[in-house]
C-alpha cells in the first residue's frame, strides 16, 4: 500500500520523486524532475517545477509555486500565496531559462503569506519572513524580516516566537518550550538544541509535529 497520497485532481509527472507520508492536494502539479521529501504537505494548486527540491517535513500552502532552481531544506513553511520569483529581469520577448540562479531556503524557515523572495538569495536557518514582505538579499540564521524590501527587525526561535535579544551585542535566551539555547555574539545568533530538537528530521517514519501549548 502506498504511503503517498495524491488527490485525483493533482498531476504528478512520471519521474518525479516523492517521499513517503507526503500528500499532494487538489489541482497541484509536480513536474518530472522535481524532488519532494517525506512527510510534506502540498496544498491546493501548488506547483513544484523541474530541478526544484523540497526537503522533508515541509508545508506548502495553497497556490505556492516552487520553481526550478529553488531548494527548500527540511521543515520549511511556505504560507499561502507566497511567491518565489525565478528570473531577475524577465521579458516576455526574451527566453532567459539558461540564466536561472539558485535560491536556497535553509531548514526551519517560515515564509509568510503573500511574501516574495527574489532569485539567487540564501535564507538562513530558521529565518522568519513576515507576511507581505519582499526579500531582496540574503538573511541570517534566525532573522525576523519585515517590509518591502525586507529588513531585520529581530530574531525568531525554532518554535516560532520572537526572541527578546537585540540585533547586535551579547546575550543569551532559552526557549521554554524546547529547551533550545540562543547565544548572541555581535550580530550572529547561534542555537544549541535542547532536550527535543524539533528541526532534527528522522527519516522513514510518519512525522508527529510538536503540539503548540500557547
TrEMBL record:
Family annotation (SUPFAM superfamilies): Trimeric LpxA-like enzymes
Pfam families hit by this protein: Hexapep
Source species, domain of life: Bacteria
Similarity-based family: Belongs to the transferase hexapeptide repeat family.
Designated name of the protein: N-acetyltransferase
Species of the source: Undibacterium curvum
